Amino acid sequence: MNKHLTRAVVTAAVLGLAVPALAQTELSFWSWRQEDVKAYNEMIAEFEKTHPDIKVTYTAHEAKAYNTILTTALAGGSGPDIIHTRAYGSLENVSGAGYLEPLNDQVDLSNFPADLVRGTTLRADGKVYAVPFATQTVLVYYNKDIFEQQGLTPPATWDEFMDVAEKLKAAGITPLANGTADGWTIEVASGAIMPNFYGPDFFGEVTSGKTTFADPRYVDALEHMAQLAPYMPQGFEGVDYATMKALFTSGAAAMFIGGSWEIPGWRDAGLNFGFMAGPAAEPGKDRLVATWLDGGYGVNAASPNKEAALEFIRFTATKEWGQMLADKLANVPAVKGVVPKDPALAEIIKLQEHQTPYIMLVAFRFKKPTGSQLLQDGLQKLMTGAMSAEDVAKAVADGIASAK
Amino acid sequence: MQSTDYESVRRARTRNLKLWLALLLTPAALLLIVFVFIPMGSAVLYSLYEWDGLARKGYVGLANFSDILFDPVRNKVLFHAFWNNVKVFVTLMIIQNGYALVLAMLLARNPRGYRFYQVVFFLPVILSTVIVSFQWKLFLNPVFGLVNKALIAVGLESWAVPWLGLPETALPAMMLVNAWHWFGFPTLVFLAAIHRIPTDFIEAARLDGASEWRIAREIIWPLMAPAVTIIVVLTFIGSFNWFEIPYVMNGLEGSPQGSTDMLGLLFYRTAFGSISAGGSDFGHGSALAVLMFIFIFVFSILATKYLTSREVEMN
User: Fold this and answer.
1) Comparing C-alpha atoms, which of A133, A85, A136, A87 is closest to residue A261?
2) Is A67 among the domain residues?
3) What range defines the domain where residue A170 resides?
4) N or C end: fewer C-beta atoms under 10 angstroms in chain B?
5) Predicted pLDDT of residue A1
6) Whole-number pLDDT of residue B315
7) Which residue of B has its CA nearest to A379?
């Protein structure tokens, strides 16, 4: 208890010595978005224009190690004033421990869709601990040049998708860049394909316990996933995320199933690409896209500068911030009513009209083993033919039932 | 009288020297205490509590330990990982240390280019493990990798498999990488041990008409036993703490299909969480770390005792 007091006194003393004239409050802001440093600094500068008394320093840590670095720092009584949090289970891990400040009466979140605010709400006390920042959507990207050369049109239904894949393969082009070496990438790919087969109601039913993952609809969805294997790169079992991206950007593969966060990377690579929702199960059916909240901005409950940090957090809940997220970072903002300058983002927002939650992340990452671990393991077995769709579905259902 | 004077000076010098030694050892001891012993102690403490995310909740005694060892959902993963560590230990003993032994025996005979080989064999050891792992991950890449390109070039298309992607080949590939990285170390240790054996022993045996195989088996091998003890124990510790290579090459989940899961990865996932494995759980993670420590510590001591008792003196 005295530690915080001591730190506050020391900090005050140091700041007092360093900048006696300005009396500026310095806030630290940690994130895992290393690729976004420049844009965040510009966005922070917008805030500092209207708040000359507050200075925010953005520090991005390596994405894989971020949770570890953050949790270790917080457990040790330190950590930043402003925390870029993940959502759902990862958020609970931090907020449940009392490290984040509840925001309910502090920040106006009425302009956010309730589904997304759920991603930063702790299930135990129903309080919101972070301002939702951006959503991710699973998309099927395709190389426009290859499609044009081969005289192909983007497929709208599953049958068309298989037909296009077959034609590409016959032309000596790898139809799909996806591999299974990094388990999470095949889980992402399932987010484009499977919802179209298990349908829009499955999420609600499986989360409320009305059905399980052994449901025939889920088995059917897995069976369709398995049909992708012949169209994946040769040796797809060893194709990791970096290789997938290299295959797609080099034009060796014609399609890539991945998250909406890939767009800036494709643009940097100078790729002529388009994207679409996963193919519909049958003609005339809606094409569902899986979406999730990527994370939020929270305030360290132990911060000595809580008021200033909350002031910054309120700024991140504005449409102005959302507009910058869209225009500077090509993020699809969680806040409602943003019209992105970027037509691609506008298109994603349109695809989101038929959305379903990205199932394992949104609802089954709270206990262990997590739904993601079970599904990734199952998909690796399914794609190599080591296990049937029915057995994978059963293994996932049993794993979820035994998780604690 | 002269001699007592000399004695007291000598004693004073020894005392001074001892003081100096103690003084010089202090920084290292302090570093060890602060960065090794205190964290070890806190891991034991953490393992006795329930944790909710990052917050320490109530004292639960040995509940975390019994969860890990006896809960069927948890111990399935634990024993699977443990079994993989056993495989790594046995395999490395054979391919890494066995190969090193053969090389050391050959080098001990002073072949042409002795120095060159010695340096070349030791070179991979000085590289960072992370760099070695990453470089081999690229070599083994199924699309761009050198290994498969080379296999195809010599007509072995059917051998060009995604090495790190198949559950049957991923762990063997990683163990080969480990052997490539480390074999120079046991080679040097064995070589030094062989050099310590007085040459008269070997020459005498040769004069008596003993075969090279017999010399190796009955003179060199027993007399280099202390080196073997060290290498066996170090390989044991390294195998059960194996982390860097599997982590860099195939990630925290022991992909594919858990075939490269190790106790070290399981510990890391449990204690700190991961994107796929969910949040951190210091309680069970610390308990696992403590169990790993006890297992490695006890077995290393037993193994050292047993192996030392079999060593012969060089009199």
Assistant:
1) A136
2) yes
3) 136-292+351-402
4) C
5) 44
6) 52
7) B257
Domain assignment of residue A335, yes or no: no
* Statement to judge: residues B137 and B14 lie in one domain: no
User: B148 at the A interface (CB within 8 A)?
Assistant: yes
Q: Across the interface, do B165 and A366 touch by the CB < 8 Å criterion?
A: no
Contact across the interface for B276 and A380, Cβ inside 8 Å: no
Six-digit token string for A26: 């310095």
pLDDT by residue for chain A (404 residues), tens only, comes to 455 655 555 554 454 444 444 578 999 999 998 888 999 999 999 999 999 999 999 999 988 788 888 988 988 888 999 999 989 888 887 887 789 999 999 999 999 988 789 899 998 889 999 999 999 999 999 999 999 999 999 999 999 999 999 999 999 999 999 999 999 999 999 999 999 999 999 999 999 999 999 999 999 999 999 999 999 999 999 999 999 999 999 999 999 999 998 998 999 999 999 999 999 999 999 999 999 999 999 999 999 999 999 999 999 999 999 999 999 988 899 998 899 999 999 999 999 889 999 999 999 988 889 999 999 999 999 999 999 999 999 999 999 999 88
**Residue of A94, A252, A377 lying closest to B54 (CB–CB):** A94
Shortest distance between the Cα of B128 and any Cα of chain A, in A, equals 19
Query: Is A345 contained in some domain?
Result: no
pLDDT at A4: 60
Is-contact A297 A316, C-beta < 8 A? yes
Both tokens of residue B238?
């390294």
Nearest in space to A213 (alpha carbons), one of A383, A369, A385, A384 = A369
Give the residue numbers spanning the domain of B7. 2-46
Taking CA–CA distances from B56, the nearest residue in chain A reads: A97
The answer to whether residue A343 is domain-embedded is: no
Residues of B in contact with A98 (CB under 8 A): 55
Smallest Cβ–Cβ distance between A89 and the set B141, B148, B279 belongs to B279
Residue B288 reports pLDDT greater than 70:
yes
- Is residue B38 located within the same domain as residue B104? no
Number of domains within chain B:
2
Distance from CA of B280 to the nearest CA of A (A): 7
B161: helix, strand or coil: coil
Q: Does B48 touch chain A (CB under 8 A)?
A: no
Predicted confidence at residue A389, as pLDDT, reads 97
Q: Name residues whose C-beta falls within 8 Å of residue A288's C-beta, 6 or more positions apart in sequence.
A: A195, A196, A199, A200, A277, A278, A354, A355, A356
Q: Has residue B279 been placed in a domain?
A: yes
Contact A181 B164 (CB under 8 A): yes
Here the CATH number for the domain that contains residue A288 is 3.40.190.10
Per-residue pLDDT tens digits for B189-201: 999 999 999 989 8
Task: Assess whether A368 and A236 both reside in one domain.
Answer: yes
DSSP A323-382: HHHHHHH--EESSTT---SSHHHHHHHHHGGGEEE-HHHHHS-SSSS-HHHHHHHHHHHH
A156 and A122 in a single domain? The answer is no
Model pLDDT, residue A90: 80
Q: Which residues are CB-contacts of A379 (< 8 A; sequence separation ≥ 6)?
A: A180, A183, A186, A187, A190, A225, A392
* pLDDT at res. A215: 97
Give yes or no: residues A190 and A233 share one domain: yes
My answer on whether A250 and A307 are in the same domain is: no
Q: Using a CB-CB distance cutoff of 8 angstroms, which residues of chain A are in contact with residue B149?
A: none
Are A171 and A311 within one domain?
A: no
Per-residue pLDDT, averaged over B266-289, amounts to 89
Distance CA B69, CA B78 (A): 8
Residues of A in contact with B250 (CB under 8 A): 181
Instruction: Answer yes or no: do A168 and A255 share one domain.
Output: yes
- Between A and B, how many residue pairs show a Cβ–Cβ distance under 8 A? 143
Tell me the ipTM for this assembly. Answer: 0.84
Regarding whether B156 and B41 lie in a shared domain, the answer is no
Number of domains chain A contains = 2
A67 to B275: CB separation less than 8 angstroms, yes or no: yes
CATH classification of the domain holding B194? 1.10.3720.10
- The tokens for A79 are 């950590």
Instruction: Identify the closest residue of chain A to B272 by CA–CA distance.
Output: A68
**Do B41 and B155 share a domain, yes or no?**
no
Task: Identify all chain B residues contacting A404, using CB atoms and an 8 Å cutoff.
Answer: 73
Q: Bridge-partner residues for A296, per DSSP?
A: A85, A132
Chain A residues with CB inside 8 Å of B144's CB? 243, 246
B163 contacts chain A (CB < 8 A) = yes
Q: A185: which 2 tokens?
A: 């990438």
Specify if B260 maps to a domain.
yes
CB contact under 8 A, A235 and B142: yes
Chain B residues closer than 8 Å to A396 by CB: none
